[in-house]
Each structure stands twice: as C-alpha cells, then as structure tokens.
Write a structure and sequence with these properties.
The complex is a heterodimer of chains A (318) and B (521).
Chain A: H1 12-37, H2 45-48, E1 50-57, H3 63-72, E2 79-85, E3 88-95, H4 101-115, E4 118-126, H5 130-156, H6 159-186, H7 193-220, E5 227-229, E6 235-237, H8 240-272, H9 278-317
Helix pairs in contact in A: 1-6, 1-9, 3-4, 5-6, 5-7, 6-7, 6-9, 7-8, 7-9, 8-9
Chain B: H1 3-11, H2 14-18, H3 22-38, E1 40-43, H4 44-55, H5 58-71, H6 80-96, E2 101-106, E3 109-113, H7 119-122, E4 124-131, H8 143-158, E5 166-170, E6 174-180, H9 185-193, E7 198-205, E8 211-219, E9 223-230, E10 237-243, H10 245-257, E11 262-267, E12 270-271, E13 289-290, E14 299-306, H11 308-320, E15 327-335, H12 337-366, H13 368-390, H14 397-426, H15 431-463, H16 466-496, E16 502-503, E17 506-507, H17 509-514
Antiparallel strand pairs in B: 1-3, 2-3, 4-6, 4-15, 5-6, 7-8, 7-11, 9-10, 10-14, 11-12, 11-13, 16-17
Helix pairs in contact in B: 3-13, 3-16, 4-6, 5-6, 12-13, 12-14, 13-14, 13-16, 14-15, 14-16, 15-16
Classes of the chains: A alpha+beta (318), B alpha+beta (521).
Chain lengths: 318, 521
C-alpha cells in the first residue's frame, strides 16, 4: 500500500461534495426529528424521563395481555415490544416514569398473576428532571473539551490548524448525529447517555487522526517554496497545497491501517457483543469511519483553502 | 536503545549491554508486575467454599463466619481488634466470590482475576436519590441535612444485609446508592424511599364534627429502640418501642393529659393502622387508640393489623431513624444478574476476538515487526488491566469502550513508527538507523495526538457524569500505558529481532557484518 498519489487539492470539491452528500440528508433528518420528537435525535428515557422494564417470562407472554395489564394498572399508552437477548424472548415495556414504588409493586404482582413467573433482566427509571441536566453537563463538557483542544493545537501548531481540526470534528459529530437522526426516524433507534460516550470517543479519535496528518504537514512545510517538476516538465515552486498533498499521501497508509484496526475491534463488538451496547458500537463505527475520512480529506483541504485565502488577502493588501 | 548501546555492544557481549539500557528492564518489570497483580491462583476447593459462603443469606453468613472464627487457632487469645480483622477477612472472601473472573482450571486449581466490574456488567441496582426541601422546618437542603439523610440511608441499606453497598453524595442534594448483586431491588427501594417519620397526634374535632389530628411534638426520633414481635394468637404482628428518657417524660405528660381521649400514630402522614388489603387506613376513618391511663414507663406498642414483614420493616425504619426530609428516587438502574452475565461474557468474547483479529492484521501487513507489535500489544493489555485492578477502576460498558479506543491508539503508535521506519529505509538508511529515526520522528505525532486525548479525558473526568467519567478514566490510563509500551516494548523488541530476518523488506546486512556479536541476541 505504499506510494499513494491522490491529488487532494485538485479534487477538493469532490471531497467536500461527498461530505455534503452524507451531511445534508443527516441535517434534514435532524430537522425532521426536531419536528417529530422536539429534539435533534430521538431521545431515550435518559433525556425524556420514563421507565423501561425488561422482563423474561418463563412461559411465552402475549404482548396484548401485557399491554392490558399495563393499562389496568394506570400505565395507559405504554409501549410493549418483544426482543431477544441471548436467544431468550424478552418483553420490553416502556412507560412513563414510575414514581410510586407501590404502583410498581402492584404492576409486578398483576403481571405475575396473569402471565406467571418472570425474571427481571433490567429496570431503568429516569425522572424527567434528570434528562436536561445530563444534556447540559454533556454539552458543557464538550465545549470545554473543544476549547482546550483548540488551545493545545494552537500552541503546538497554529490557530488555523486548530480551527480546521475542530471543523473536521464538527463534521464527524454532525455525520454521526445525522445518521442516528435518520435511524431514529426509520427504525426508532433512541439515543441514551452512552451515546454521549460514543460522541466523545469519536471526538478523541478524530482529533487524534487529524493531528497525525497535521504533524506531517507541519514537518513538511519547510519544503514550501522548494523546487519541483510539474506535469509539463517545467520547474515550479512548491505551494502549501503541494506540501499538504504530499503529507496526506505519506500518512494515508497509516490512517487507513489504524482505522482498519479500530474498525476490526468495533465490528467484533458489534457482531459478538451484548445487545445493550449494540447501538453504542454502531455509533462509534460510523464516527470513526467519518473521522478517518475527514482527517484525510476535509481537514487538510480546509487548511490549504485557509492558507490560500489568507495569502491572497495578504497579496491584495500589500 | 540508543547509539551508545551500539558502540558498547561492539566491545562486549551484546545481551550484557542490552540490559544496561533502562527500557528492556522497564518492559520486564512491567510484565512481571502486571502478571503478579492480575493473576491469582487458589485450589478449586477454596473457590467452591467462597462461592458457597457468598450464596448464603446475610444472617446465615454471619453465623457461618462466627462458627469458623471459633475454629481458628488462637482465637481465644486474640484481642477484639484482631478478631474484627479476622471477621473482615472472612467477609472479604465471601464477597470475592461474587466478583471474580475465572480464567482457567489446572489440576484442581483455579486461575482467576478479580477486576472490579460495574453494576451494568455484574448486575445490581443503582439509585439516585434527591432530598426534597420540606418547608417550614427544612426550607433548603444544607450540608447538615444531607449528612443526616446519608446516615439514615446508610443505616437502612445496611439492614438489608447486602455486601459492598455504597452510599455516595453527589452534588448539593443527591445521593447515589449502589447495591451490587442485590436480589430484591424492590424491597430496597421500598425501604429507602420512605421518610419513615412516625408522629403521635391528638384527636380533636372541628366545628363540623370532622376529626382533626393535632401535632403533639412527639415523633419516632424520640425512640430509643423499636422491635417487631408476634402478637398472641391470630398471626398478627406489632411493633414494640422504648422511648429515650426525654421522650418517655413527654409521653408520660401527654398520656396523663389525655386520659379518656384518643391518640393516633401516623407514619409519613398516614395512619399506621392497616385495612384488610394491607393499605393504610384513610385518615377520616381512623380513630387511633383511647388512652386508659397515663403511661409512665416509657414503653409502648404500635398495633395496626401488621403482618410479619410490615412489622419488621417498620421497626427497621424506626431504628434507622426518620429522614430529616423526604427523598425521591430520581433515577434507577437495575440490571439483573442474567443480563449482566450475558453482557460480560459477550464483551469478553468480542474483546478477545477483536484483539486477535488486530494481531492477525498486524502480522499480515508487517510480518515480523507486526509480531513484535503484537507482543507489545499483549503487554499493553496486561499492564492496563493490572492498573485497572490495582487502582481499582470500576469497569463499565462505557469503560470498555474507552479501553477499546485506547487499544486502537496503542496499535496506531506502532503503525506510525513502522510506516516511518519503512520510509526511512526507502530513503536508503540502514535498518538500525531507520528504526531509531522511525521512532524519533513518529514520536511527535504520537505525543501530540495522545496529549490531546489526555486533555479531553481530564475535562471529562472533571465535568462528566458517572458514565462519561468511567470512559475517560479507562481511556486516559490506556493512552498513558500505550505511550509507555510504544517507547519501551516495541523499540527494545525490534532491536532483538535476529539480524538475518528481513524486516521491513530489508535484511540488516550492513549492521550484521559490522557487529557479528549481535547474532547472539
């Protein structure tokens, strides 16, 4: 896989086009989600409040019976679904947050009378007040992380590197959120607090990836202005774009290999891991693929663009 | 491995000078420490015994431990401190069985480790409680109030007899209660969630002959002790109580004043008397008990059609004390043991297959250097897990994600180094120089990208919620260890590869000729 030679700068509009082709449906999905769920993604109980009970009945349980038991006990409008965990049928009940423990106990007794013994696989309850807090905390953490990263990259590199890295990062987060918004609309995938961890993972990975490319550009930038032979055979000076191009091609193998190793582990987790983490792993997979793409194509293209723009401006003002 | 090593090795035995460098020592030391920390081995019988002890209900376990203590040689001569220590050791053993991961069996011995697993992996219940202000007495939740709430909740949880419970304050008005491996979370919630404020009230009648219950300033806080006990005949239970001296005096005065009148006993605002269906009687129907004569002894009883469970439950709550303010359960996460078991088994399998696949990939792409990276990866995995165990870090699903990401970063360091080395070789350097240059030049990328990850982690540790924190801690540890192993292990091992192997597509002929002694390595 040695010696990539992709002309990055020349096909700039293609790379940005591919990104837009992913981002625009995602943004439409996010808007549609806002209209339908009043949130950019279909929120799970972690954000809206509510209870999820997962029970495994010894005898097969009819969903209608479960529903009627829920209705009789004051949980009208609850969702009841069947799922499979490790080959066992599991009844998943989504209700409003059960605040009164007496009510829960009554429900359990009623279910036991109607449908026989069951094993409690999991009970999650989140009251409606916690959700917004979780979101604010998450956002505060994200914003502080972003600004610290900008500060660090500006210190080690330059401010334009930092801004481009963060834009590439936004791209990845947006791509991930967009795809999950679409999944929420079509198959009802909900986001929970683990999703915040997934976003964080993607951020970590994306910046990590981008920095490796930028590190190479920084190292090679001493070659800007050195001589090279162009397509027509005449000798011209190397532009920043040429150097960025070389750097991306030099680091391409590494970017692809590294992403492949992470994708391999995640795919294993996705195929073999527990049900509880499936959406979480899917989110990381999407984000990491996007992160690799954006650090190879978008981040450095943006940087070149920025440099060309500022150089032109300088020329004009001079 | 620097160039000094090269010059020294010319003079003498290569392995000798090899160990003059600190890096190989660090590798060997880290490996040894990791293995010693991680792995434990005990005879099968011991493990079976622990498991038996952990399966006992709390009362029986205590009895069992006491019985065993008697048999310990020299028990009679021990002072109380030593006895307590011994008791705790037995208890720890019983708890250990709940939380060990068996790795293998060998000749009636069991090889195991005990990483601390989060509730989402091993099963259990986590509750987040919020203390609510109760004006006019407690208009806002202060530190003082929270301390009171914490003590009461702690007492109540301890009465459940579940081991390893944890009550932790979080923020201004919250408590996080963790109960790993709890069998009946519903019982725990019933016991924790109620205020258990027991009040004595005096019956008066309003102008429209409606009953009005009036406070008399005597509550469950005036009790010294309460106990559930069966009543003669009928299978009903009662709660007998004893007042503290002050309460006894107040109760004496009250009953002297109210001879022939009614006194009611209310728990959290509802009469303690039960209807036939077990629910508290409505306050309109309740008439309390008539005081026949002054009660001066400071003892009394509450009878209210209790069954055994209700009476025991009430007495436990009274002894643990009433909460100064009501609490509510903001959040509950209960994972049944089955689901936890399922998650941990599948995660382990997926993790193992994932790491194996990455190892195969590295060998397929890089050949012998890939194998070296794999060995470094094994060292990395062991060292990280050993640090998780030693600190200890509680491993949750989010934590596993952080760990997997850090594996990705650890492999990345190797890939960066190898790619750089290959470039150096293409540029015509000798293998030795290429490896050294590869390391040095790749290091700035590795350092910057990892420093950036560490910045993110530290912010998340400070500001994140518990899930996010778990993730950040494992990732940070992973990143630090991966930098260390990339610098030490991969580098030392690469130089150990015998020189006639063609690594990175280049046999190290030049160096091999100039330094024949290196063959010995």
């Amino acid at each position: 896989m040695n010696g990539f030679n992709v002309d990055l700068v020349k096909y700039r509009s293609l790379w940005f086009g591919i990104s837009l082709a992913i981002l625009i449906p995602g943004i439409i999905g996010i808007i549609a989600c806002c209209a339908k769920f009043h949130a950019p993604l279909k929120p799970g109980i972690d954000f809206t409040g509510g209870s999820i009970l997962q029970y495994q009945f010894n005898k097969p349980a009819a969903l209608d019976t479960v529903r009627s038991v829920l209705d009789d006990n004051g949980f009208v409008g609850s969702q009841v679904q069947q799922a499979s965990i490790s080959g066992h049928e599991v009844i998943v009940m989504r209700t409003k947050a059960i605040d009164d423990e007496g009510q829960k106990r009554k429900l359990d007794t009623a279910l036991q009378q109607k449908l026989g013994e069951f094993k409690v696989l999991s009970v999650d309850k989140v009251s409606a007040t916690v959700g917004p807090e979780l979101l604010t905390n998450g956002l505060v953490a994200l914003i502080i992380t972003f600004s610290m990263m900008v500060a660090y990259i500006s210190y080690r590199f330059m401010i334009d590197y930092a801004v481009c890295a963060i834009v590439a990062l936004f791209h990845d987060v947006l791509a991930l959120c967009g795809i999950f918004a679409l999944l929420g609309l079509t198959v009802g995938t909900e986001v929970d607090s683990l999703f915040i961890s997934a976003i964080l993972t993607v951020i970590g990975f994306s910046v990590h990836d981008t920095i490796v490319v930028f590190d190479r550009i920084r190292e090679n930038s001493k070659f800007v202005g050195s001589k090279k032979t162009d397509d027509t055979g005449s000798t011209v000076k190397k532009t920043f774009g040429d150097v960025a191009n070389d750097s991306v091609n030099q680091t391409m193998t590494r970017s692809i290999y590294t992403s492949l190793t992470v994708i391999i582990t995640l795919t294993c987790l996705f195929m073999l891991g527990g049900v509880t983490t499936r959406d979480f792993v899917l989110a990381m997979l999407i984000g990491i693929i996007s992160g690799t793409y954006s650090s190879i194509f978008n981040a450095s293209c943006l940087l070149v663009w920025w440099r060309e723009f500022t150089t032109k401006k300088r020329v004009k003002t001079a | 491995m620097t160039s000094q090593w090269q010059s020294k090795s010319k003079k003498g035995f290569a392995a000798n000078s090899f160990f003059k460098d600190w890096k190989p020592w660090a590798v060997v030391g880290l490996l040894a420490w990791s293995l010693v920390t991680l792995l434990q081995i005990e005879p099968q019988a011991t493990i079976d015994d622990w498991q038996h002890m952990s399966s006992l209900p709390p009362d029986e376990l205590n009895a069992e431990i006491v019985a065993r203590e008697q048999k310990v040689a020299g028990y009679d001569k021990m002072n109380s401190y030593e006895r307590e220590d011994l008791h705790k050791r037995f208890q720890d053993d019983a708890q250990l069985a709940n939380n060990i991961q068996i790795l293998g069996h060998y000749q009636k011995h069991v090889l195991f480790t005990n990483l601390k697993l989060g509730l989402d992996l091993r099963g259990g219940s986590q509750l987040m409680l919020q203390a609510l202000p109760a004006p006019p007495q407690v208009p806002e939740i202060t530190q003082e109030v929270m301390r009171g709430v914490e003590t009461v909740i702690n007492n109540r949880i301890n009465s459940l007899g579940v081991s390893e419970t944890l009550v932790q304050r979080s923020g201004k008005d919250r408590l996080i209660v963790e109960m790993p491996g709890i069998k009946d979370p519903q019982q725990a919630k019933d016991r924790i969630g109620t205020t258990a404020l027991l009040e004595f009230k005096e019956l008066t009648f309003g102008p429209d002959r409606k009953p009005i219950w009036k406070d008399v300033g005597l509550t469950g806080a005036d009790f010294k002790h309460a106990q559930g006990s069966p009543m003669a005949g009928g299978g009903l239970w009662r709660v007998t109580f004893e007042f503290k001296p002050d309460g006894a005096r107040k109760f004496g005065e009250l009953t002297s004043r109210l001879v022939g009148h009614q006194i009611g006993i209310f728990l959290d605002g509802q009469p303690t008397d039960r209807n036939a269906d077990g629910r508290p009687m409505s306050a309109d129907e309740y008439r309390g008990v008539t005081v026949r004569e002054p009660i001066l002894g400071g003892n009394g009883e509450i009878t209210g059609n209790f069954n055994k469970d209700q009476a025991v439950d009430l007495s436990v709550k009274l002894n643990a004390g009433a909460l100064p303010v009501p609490v509510r359960i903001l959040e509950e996460r209960t994972v049944g043991a089955t689901l936890g078991q399922d998650s941990i088994q599948k995660s382990l399998l997926a993790g193992a297959v994932g790491i194996a696949a990455v190892m195969v990939f590295m060998i397929a792409v890089y050949g012998i250097p890939g194998l070296v990276a794999d060995i470094a990866l094994v060292l990395y995995t062991l060292a990280t897990l050993a640090i998780f165990k030693a600190l200890p870090v509680t491993i949750t699903l989010a934590g596993i994600a952080g760990f997997i990401l850090s594996i990705g970063m650890a492999v990345d360091a190797n890939i960066l180094i190898f790619e750089r080395t290959k470039e150096e070789i293409r540029g015509g350097r000798s293998l030795y120089t290429a490896i050294e240059n590869g390391f040095n030049r790749a290091f700035s990328s590795i350092f910057d990208s990892n420093a950036n990850s560490l910045i993110a982690c530290s912010v998340l540790m400070l500001f994140g919620t518990s899930i996010v924190k778990g993730f950040a801690v494992t990732l940070a540890i992973g990143v630090l260890v991966s930098m260390f192993t990339a610098i030490t292990a991969t580098r030392s091992l690469l130089h150990l590869v015998p020189r006639d192997f063609a690594i990175f597509g280049k046999a190290n002929k030049k160096v091999a000729q100039s330094m024949p002694s290196k063959e010995a390595v």
